[in-house]
Write a structure and sequence with these properties.
The structure is a homodimer.
Chain A lengths: L4 H19 L7 E9 L2 E4 L1 H10 L5 E12 L6 E11 L6 E12 L2 E12 L2
Protein name (chains A, B): Nuclear transport factor 2
Pfam families (chains A, B): NTF2
InterPro entries (chains A, B): NTF2, NTF2-like_dom_sf, NTF2_dom, Nuclear_transport_factor_2_euk
Chain lengths: ~120, ~120
């Protein structure tokens, strides 16, 4: 299976952060029951738990900005590994927080879901 | 296959950075011909090219320090995904540089090799 993994990763991340910033309660479709997320050392499994965690984060408004995005094929089946570094701004804060995030994307029926998701704020 | 992926990831990263800091020309055994590395947007494939790149980096002394390390199982075959954030100090520099790195580890004959490796310095 040949896939332009760089374009796919860029497209996925644009969609992901756009949806996150607009309404993060709608991200559940991107995860499956066996998907895993580690959010600042909290380990979660399954679409429902992951979205519950994201929705519970203590901010109303959030805006992600990607600084770097790197992608690689992660198997012969079309899996794609993405690492993002970026900044996010919450609510009325003036100072952006830097973060790193890693996604492992799995092809399914012409689209992709997130099998692995690791998120960390980068403290200065 | 059951594996303590957190312990495995920690052990791998300790070994990797220890070897990197002592003599990075010896890291080739951890990669295979189809392994990929993205180093600050340069895409490399294969153990030889990866080690050549690492050896060519313009510093003599380097010391990595892990700040956060998160791991997840990345398949049913024992693959492990690791994301590290950390700091590194080169030569006689007084200020550490922050970095993010992602490893996709594949089990092989009782050990692991690196299929995917993505490295980025985090500029402030």
């Amino acid at each position: 299976m040949s896939v332009d993994f760089n374009a796919l990763a860029q497209q996925f991340c644009n969609f992901y952060y756009d949806q996150f910033d607009k309404d993060r309660s709608q991200l559940g479709n991107l995860y499956r029951d066996h998907s895993m997320m580690t959010f600042e050392s909290t380990q979660l499994q399954g679409s429902r738990n992951i979205v519950e965690k994201l929705v519970s984060l203590p901010f109303r408004k959030v805006a992600h900005r990607i600084s770097t995005l790197d992608a690689q094929p992660a198997s012969e089946n079309g899996d794609v590994l993405v690492m993002v570094t970026g900044e996010l701004l919450v609510d009325e804060e003036q100072n952006a927080q830097r973060y790193s995030q890693c996604f492992h994307l799995i092809p399914e029926s012409g689209s992709y879901f997130v099998l692995n998701d690791i998120f960390r704020l980068n403290y200065g």
